[in-house]
Design a protein that fits this description.
404 residues, 8-stranded mixed beta sheet, 5-stranded parallel beta sheet
């Protein structure tokens, strides 16, 4: 089992603190592994094995505990000594009314609670009613490029150069299971497609009671085809209308919300840099792992610009940034990332093929009148000069950079 130190480092400050720790992210992104790594960390710190209760609610072994009442009584019977107990509850959304049970654990027992969930709406207003101010969310993503290299180092002794390794990451994405064996692209996409199908069935169709699965699939295809492009629910509805299919715009928005809830898509709002306000129209959507696009739609080399944007977007999210699409006058900045009062501006392009492209990519960033870091990220590796303080980085240099 490979350590994922980023997530353990985020959990450490909250060990033995009152807050409930909730790891959220798409299925098979590694949340269960992080919980197991946490268990090892607790044991190494002196916690006894009998003080740790680990339950994976996707295991048939615990299928009798899928209501709040049954889970509560099970935990109550397991807590037989006066020491603090550590509850590690994996895929908690499988338990009906789970938040009521968790709230009772806090009230009735001396416990330190860690949960994982594969639905972003776990932290809905309904949950906040029970656990207001008592939880901290830690998003778990598929492998970063740095983690991907760690997996390669652990599982393979290959001699591939950095460029070939990035092309593997570009093609296969970051689901951890893909990088534990030397899968061909075809085999990797079959595994990813099976993960995707399970998510669509369990975390969208069943959870949101979606009846028109064929329409859902069409909305997904539209979103995937437009990675890196701004669009709205109205654009999707208008597109279907042009195909002689009438679709209610609210249905489109509901389906996009369901896909966000299952971590298939991330919605990125637009931000007016000069007006310093978030705009409500023409958002962008990015997929939680680029391999899903290839697995569901085949080769998408024509989308390389959007794919690279997607990779950079996920890297910014992993680093803990809130990410927006920037509007600067009539120009657009791919990403304005904010964290603890600090900003980073990023433009992403496949190649800087001519003078006009260079002027466009750099000019938009140069028009922003502040001193925060600015980057143009591409797959050009023949020159990396900065222009008036705007750095030009090859994409792997950006992804491996310790601090932006």
């Amino acid at each position: 089992m490979i350590t994922r130190p980023t997530y353990i480092a985020q959990l450490k400050p909250f060990i033995n603190k009152k807050q409930i720790k909730i790891l959220t992210g798409i299925r098979r992104s590694g949340k269960s592994t992080v919980l197991l790594l946490l268990k090892d960390q607790l044991l190494a710190s002196g916690v006894k094995e009998e003080q740790i209760i680990f339950i994976n609610f996707e295991s048939f072994m615990y299928s009798h505990l899928l209501t709040a009442s049954k889970l509560y009584h099970y935990i109550r019977n397991e807590i037989k000594i006066s020491d603090k107990f550590y509850l590690l509850l994996d895929e908690i959304q499988e338990v009906k009314d789970w938040e009521k049970a968790v709230n009772s654990f806090i009230v009735d027992f001396d416990v330190d609670i860690y949960l994982t969930g594969s639905n972003s709406h776990l932290l809905s207003s309904e949950l906040a009613t029970f656990l207001a101010g008592r939880y901290v969310e830690i998003p778990v993503f598929t492998l970063s490029y740095r983690e991907f290299l760690d997996f390669r180092k652990n599982y393979f002794s290959d001699k591939q150069n950095a460029g070939n390794l990035f092309l593997q990451y570009l093609r296969k994405g970051g689901f951890p299971v893909i990088h534990t064996a030397d899968y061909s692209d075809e085999s990797a996409y079959k595994i990813v497609y099976d993960i995707y199908s399970s998510i669509i069935l369990r975390d969208t169709v069943q959870r949101y009671k979606i009846r028109d699965v064929e329409l859902l699939e069409r909305v997904i295809k539209y979103a995937f085809d437009n990675i890196g492009n701004s669009f709205s629910g109205k654009n999707v509805a208008d597109y279907f209308k042009s195909q002689q299919r009438k679709v209610d715009i609210n249905t489109v928005y509901n389906y996009l919300t369901a896909l966000e809830g299952a971590f298939i898509l991330y919605r990125v709002p637009r931000y007016d840099i000069k007006g310093k306000e978030i705009l409500k129209t023409q958002e962008k959507f990015y997929v939680s792992d680029i391999s899903i696009i290839y697995a569901t739609m085949g080769n998408r080399d024509r989308m390389i610009g959007g794919i690279l944007e997607n990779i950079v977007f996920l890297d910014l999210k992993r680093r803990g940034y809130n990410v927006f699409v920037g509007k600067s006058g009539n120009s657009e900045i791919d990403f304005v990332a904010e964290r603890q009062g600090r900003k980073v501006y990023v433009q992403v392009a496949y190649k800087l093929e001519n003078k006009e492209t260079v002027e466009r990519e750099f000019g938009t960033l140069l028009s922003v009148g502040d001193q925060y870091p600015k980057y143009v990220v591409t797959m050009d590796d023949f020159w990396k000069d900065a222009i008036e303080g705007v750095a030009h980085l090859y994409i792997t240099d950006f992804l491996m950079k310790e601090e932006l």
